[in-house]
Specification:
There is one protein chain. The protein is an alpha/beta fold. It has 13 helices and 13 strands. It folds into 2 domains: 211 residues, Rossmann fold (3-Layer(aba) Sandwich); 114 residues, no CATH class.
Amino acid sequence: MPRPGTAYDEVVLLTGFPSFLSRKMAAQILSAEPRTRLHVLVRQKFEAESRAFLDELPEDQRARVSFLEGDASSMDLGLSGKEFTALAGEVDRIHHCASVTYHGVDRPTAEQVNIGGAREVVELGRACSQLKALVFHSTASVCGNRTGIVREEDLDRGQSFGNVVEETKARAEKIMRAAMLKMPIVVVRPSIVVGDSTTGEVDRFDGPYLLILLIVTSPPELALPLPGRGDLPLHVVPVDYVVRAAHAIGRDPAAVGRTFHLVDPAPLTARRVFELVAQAGGRRLPRGSIPANLTRALLSTPGLDRFAKSPRAFLDALITPVSYSSANTDEILSGKGIRCPPFEVYSEKLVEFVQQRLREKRARKAPLEVDDPLV
């Protein structure tokens, strides 16, 4: 029902703008909820990017967006007391997407953004008078070095972490778990997020893109060896599925107080993934394999450091025998028509996007690196 004196049914707050995930989440909310008002928390230095995003929206969607200058990791989200109070009085749902995912980040920044941001958004949630759901966007990598089957309820199981991003995201989840006792919190955990399955679009060439780059930039006659044996599942998921699933889960009352893995239910092996990438890029199929330590040396090839400073996290994913239960996700999304597309369907789109970016980079004679927008 419309709110008295307004044309809106709900008001949503989105943090993390203008990160790739946050922009996709904003587009999903605006297109799927034509009677929702969207407040977007934005740091001052990203004002120009935010305005550019706004200008690209259809007029009816543009009219329902307002930007709030603030910082998700600052006290009261960097808002004035008046702004904070007004926001708490009208927000129905929160999508907390603000986080650092770049594995080369320093510890103080990761703790400030990932842990500090979690604390601050919980404080806002506590102050809200009509909150229906606070959706916390986490990551399946909070399982650290665990092997075997990871359930959605699992969090602290004595695991260790390969980097500060995994560690701080897990600590942030603990904050959410504690707050779940008194607040309507929903946690979503995607596996490794790649580009849009329909356009191939992505913001940063990291993780799986390191090896995609190696394949598509190698001589056509060269068959690169695969890191490790390549017989373990590679858990990747396209960003458009992530936002559609997170949006639907965040609107379902049955999701409150639960955690959801957003994963491919039938992940391909790493070898099959890179065979598809090689085919799409017009390259020979990978042959043989090399130990992970030699792969790390390969990824230190001059020039590749422009794309990512820390390939270790992805290499560890290639050699870690882990799988993710998605029972909660399957239950909530049942009947909603939202399914993770198989990698075979969108592999060519991912490669096409990479190749186009490489052509643009060569034309500009500019580096391709894209930094984490929240650092």
